[in-house]
Amino acid sequence: MPGGATAPAPAPAPAPAPAPGKVRVWVPGGPFDLGLVLGPLRRGPGDPTFRTTPDGSVWRASLTPAGPGTLRVAARGGQVRGEAWGPGAEWLLEQLPGLLGADDDPAAFAPRHRLVAVTRHRRPGLRLTRTGLVLDSLIPSVLEQKVTTVEAYQAWRLLVRKYGEPAPGPVPGRMYVMPAPRTWALIPSWDWHRAGVEDKRAATVLRAVRVAGRLEEAVRMEPAAAQARLELVPGIGPWTSAEVVQRSHGAPDAVTVGDLHLPGIVGWALAGDRGADDAEMLRLLEPYAGQRHRAARLILLSGRVPPRRAPRMARGDIGRF
């Protein structure tokens, strides 16, 4: 060019718009609160498989029987819109009503205590989610055994980010799909330790993923039978199996026993007894037989907890295991 000037570099082409996902719309038959329904699936504020966005949408990355998939759920104008990406998109949309509590029957619940009745009145949109996936809830529940939630959430976050695969679709931030069973089985011992997971919990996960197919079959069983199958795996007890079927099956009666805090919370809320144990908790929840998990959820949502007088559980040191 004259004077030795160089031609300006061409402007970069705009990035292509993300491909739209597959869509399904579902209309809940009654009050519905998206955050209450899907909140139990979130494993801490940094969960790489779960995000909420300022517009109120919930994003969730899952390993489905058809492969990895990402689901975005938004509630607007009395209906819920699900949009999904990846090989597991169709499976996620097929399961969408169950995930949002369509199989749940809130009307079957009859409050027996004023606190529970008031909380139910204030939170009418509570429904029990059903994911249709077992390992999806089992592995993070195993990581939560006998440690603080901070430790468990950190372990889940580190392991999923390192060994999971990026979630498909136009996800907000960095999201990952949980590793496949074979990938969990190949995690070396030093990475379990770096994530703060001692040998006992790691071994439980390894035993579970070796029989992943049999455990996933449990989603077609009644919750009690599913718990029994899960508990055949050494290291999985009633606490863990209840935490799983609450999510995988939407089980309204799967009350968590063996929890450090729940008996005291239930005892305090229903009887003013901060020292209640599992037996006392089950006695207090007996009027809610068939709906004990829902009753416990409502008690937790009430915010009525005993005043703290003991230090929080100390963070663990895996060097002592």
Provide a descriptive summary of the structure in words.
The chain is globular. The chain has a domain at about 20-105. The longest helix has 15 residues, at about 150-165. It is an alpha+beta fold. The strands form two sheets. A five-stranded antiparallel beta sheet has the order 1-5-4-3-2. Strands 6-7 form a two-stranded antiparallel sheet. Helix 4 (about 115-120) crosses helix 15, helix 5 packs antiparallel against helix 9 and helix 5 packs antiparallel against helix 12 (about 240-250). Helices cover about 40% and strands about 10% of the residues. The protein has helices at about 35-40, 90-95, 95-100, 115-120, 135-145, 150-165, 180-185, 190-195, 200-210, 210-215, 225-230, 240-250, 260-270, 280-285, 290-300, and strands spanning about 20-25, 50, 60-65, 65-75, 80-85, 165, 175.
Largest sheet descriptor: 5 strands, antiparallel
Number of helices: 15
Strand content: 5-15%
Average residue pLDDT: 93
User: What is the N-to-C order of secondary-structure elements (H for helix, E for strand)?
Assistant: EHEEEEHHHHHEEHHHHHHHHH
Query: How far apart lie the N and C ends?
Result: 74 Å
The percentage helix is 25-40%
Side by side, the strands of the main sheet go 1-5-4-3-2
Uncertain runs with pLDDT below 50, 5 residues or more?
A: 317-321
- What structural category characterises the helix and strand content? alpha+beta
Radius of gyration based on Cα positions = 22 Å
Number of strands: 7
Overall 3D shape: globular
